[in-house]
Structures are given as structure tokens and as C-alpha cells.
Design goal:
This protein is an alpha/beta fold. 43% of the residues lie in helices and 15% in strands.
């Protein structure tokens, strides 16, 4: 298998570092930094759901109509690609990087992500990401549902006050309490720490400090399995 970041052939079995957590828990920035440190790809599964939400909006599909959302998800033309250190989901050959971060997409994704048919489709697609090699995958059910077999599971969290402040600094007004309630109470793949996950409260940790904590735990688990430690490359 070729490493898409280095172009070199790697004979090691690809693995997933699963990072779950609620909204504004720092999953995204932490995942990107950890992947950069270790020379791995990143997978933002939330971006995949946002992409579907954006696609629903542009196709004039009511995001509150589960059947219509599920029908669109079954027939949209998508492709996974590894580029710029990330695994991305393209729609009709396009990655809507800016569009999926709008307030409209943010409001719509909460409804789209509740649809069971959508979550089933996403699970299959997200498991395909490992075809590109080892990766740091972040979301809300990676360790519990997408890659429950991985040895490297983390659940990032922070106080609601800190998470609200983070969202406001991003220019996003979001009721984190309401989002937490929706995510944790949904019938399919609810948000919760997965079995075997290390819970990291990063309310008062920098991104680098959080990554250092996680890398230490990853290497502790690798040592227990008689595997070579992962060493920072950047």
C-alpha cells in the first residue's frame, strides 16, 4: 500500500486512531495536529454529514423529511479521495469546503445525522477510508460504531461554558446543550464514550498538550501489544 503523504510503500497494517466527542470539544483541531505529528491522514466524519446536509439544501430536499433525505443519500454521486493530508468525500467531483461551514448547513446537519439510513450509509463509507492507509478519524461514534475494533480510542470533552466560548470565537452561535441532548439521545449510534476509550477533558489543555496525552496513551497500548511506538515526524 502506498502512503499518500510520502509516496512510499508501507507494509504495516493500517490502523485508526478514533477521536469522538461533543460539539466544540476540540476534535477537529486536535485530530489534525495529531495526524500532522505522526504523518497520518485525517478523516473528518462530521464534514461528510455536513456535505450531505449541504447537498440536501441545494437539491431543495426537506431535511426534516427522513424518507426524502434517505432517498437522496442512496443516489447521490460521491467519491472518496485522499488529498492535502485528508480523506475527503466529493460530490459530483467537488468538495464544498466553505459551503458546509455555513450556519444553514450547521442547522441542517443535526437533522440529517439523525436518519438511520444516512448513518448506515456513512458507516460503510467511513470504513472505506482505511483503503488510503492509517488515519486519525474524528466524529461522534467512531470508537463505538465505525471502528469499534481499534485499540486507539479517545473521547474528548470540555465544559459546556468552554465549548460555547469556542463556538463564539468561530463566529458560530450554537446551543451546545441542545446539540448534546440530540446527539446523546438519538436511537441509532448515540454520542457516548466507547468501551475502552480514554476520556480527555481538554477544558484547560492546549491542543499540543492534548495530543501529547493521547500519544502517550497510544504508545502505552502499543507497548502492551508488543508494537513499536509511534514517533512524531513533525
Amino acid at each position: 500500500m502506498l502512503n499518500p503523504l510520502t509516496g512510499n510503500l508501507t507494509l504495516t497494517k493500517p490502523f485508526v486512531i478514533a477521536i469522538d466527542g461533543p460539539s466544540a470539544s476540540g476534535k477537529g483541531v486536535t485530530s489534525r495536529r495529531l495526524a500532522q505529528m505522526l504523518g497520518l491522514l485525517t478523516v473528518d466524519t462530521g464534514a461528510m454529514y455536513r456535505t450531505l446536509a449541504w447537498h440536501c439544501l441545494r437539491m431543495k430536499v426537506d431535511v426534516n423529511d427522513d424518507k426524502k433525505v434517505a432517498a437522496l443519500c442512496r443516489k447521490w454521486k460521491t467519491k472518496l479521495v485522499a488529498e492535502e493530508g485528508q480523506v475527503r468525500l466529493l460530490v459530483d467531483g467537488y468538495f464544498p469546503a466553505k459551503e458546509i461551514r455555513t450556519s444553514e448547513a450547521s442547522a441542517a446537519v443535526a437533522h440529517v445525522a439523525q436518519v438511520r439510513a444516512v448513518r448506515d450509509w456513512m458507516k460503510a463509507k467511513q470504513r472505506e477510508c482505511i483503503q488510503f492507509g492509517s488515519c486519525v478519524m474524528e466524529g461522534r461514534d467512531i470508537g463505538s460504531n465505525i471502528f469499534p475494533e481499534t485499540d486507539y480510542k479517545f473521547f474528548l470533552d470540555a465544559s459546556p461554558e468552554v465549548r460555547k466560548q469556542r463556538r463564539e470565537r468561530e463566529g458560530v452561535q450554537e446551543d451546545v446543550h441542545a446539540r448534546d441532548k440530540r446527539d446523546s439521545s438519538r436511537a441509532h449510534s448515540p454520542l457516548m464514550p466507547s468501551l475502552g476509550a480514554m476520556i480527555v477533558d481538554n477544558s484547560h489543555h492546549s491542543v499540543q498538550e492534548t495530543c501529547d496525552i493521547m500519544l502517550e496513551e497510544i504508545n502505552r497500548r502499543r507497548k502492551a501489544n508488543r508494537l513499536a511506538p509511534l514517533k512524531p515526524v513533525a
